[in-house]
């Protein structure tokens, strides 16, 4: 079997399904387990750090591991960097058959840091019986030094190993998500899969067809087609709650503003007046919201005069990545309110100087959109409330990247067309 440690909501598992294989996942999060169940994936709900590794001896073809990244991620406090010497010590001890986790855990600034050493506990138990045949591991870039330590140990056990940083956008994921990768094999030379995409499309050469252009958010979400909407304004806020951009119960799309010519919001809708060109000074001079008489007609957005340009803001922080819809998204991460992703609009294009630019309040990204930008299918059966769902999505491995990494180990042909994103 293929063993998937820290299996999450099924990024690796969905990739294996596309490739015609299956894994068994170990996962402790209740809602990730429910998502996996709805997706038809085999799961043992357990704490990876407590589950006995010897149970799998004699049964494992491949081992996959994506330890939780919260202790190391730039989205958090990054206490994993403080704990790094302790994690390296744990890996060295486990590789030698010594379990010092309990002593080291008490010295960790973030108890989650030590989870990055757990794959070595399983690898040591499996290596005693000559398993697994191959290993694939993934984490945030700051974990690369730890993967190099794993690599040195695995080479001593007879593996060919490659470690490095890969960008998911180079493999057709509509997101520039950079990750530290470890690839190891007992039966073939470990090497990264050749990239299929680049920042700009490449022409065909003597060596074959060139790489395609990075997949944009608009392309992945199906925007631009006559039957595809631009962001949907839905009541209920986003992950973590928060104010709604429109009154409770209202559901509006901005389709007409982009594709059909005009969109008239509900007369009671609260519209933020802003100008991306003039910045916050315009709002300060004129007020954050327009005081319109109750019986006055609502403003109308006309595509001929007001051309909407949508961008995705990765979080609420001042240094947030903002990408246009015709580009891949920045790295998506969720988990607390500061990490809310929102669509923001710029209507300055084609608007004469001196005219007001009517810009709606930022629109929170939907779970379906976020999942698609992670390369999950639009109908993936996410379970849980908004916060639980977004947390699963942010922590997941993009299935399309996972398929590129797994296919050589399975001797399976990988057809990127098997990944359907927008419904």
Automatic annotation (TrEMBL):
Q: Active site: which residues?
A: 69
Q: Which InterPro entries match?
A: C5-Methyltransferase (IPR050390), C5_MeTfrase (IPR001525), SAM-dependent_MTases_sf (IPR029063)
Q: Name any one GO molecular function.
A: DNA (cytosine-5-)-methyltransferase activity
Arranged from A to Z, the UniProt key words for this protein are: Methyltransferase, Restriction system, S-adenosyl-L-methionine, Transferase
Keyword Transferase annotated: yes
GO biological process terms, alphabetically, are: DNA restriction-modification system; methylation; negative regulation of gene expression via chromosomal CpG island methylation
EC class, as a word, reads transferase
The keyword Signal appears for this protein: no
Q: SUPFAM superfamilies, per this entry?
A: S-adenosyl-L-methionine-dependent methyltransferases
Extract the ranges annotated as region (Disordered). Answer: 189-208, 236-266
EC number from the UniProt entry: 2.1.1.37
Similarity section:
Belongs to the class I-like SAM-binding methyltransferase superfamily. C5-methyltransferase family.
State the name under which the record lists this protein. DNA (cytosine-5-)-methyltransferase
Q: Which organism is it from?
A: Streptomyces griseoviridis
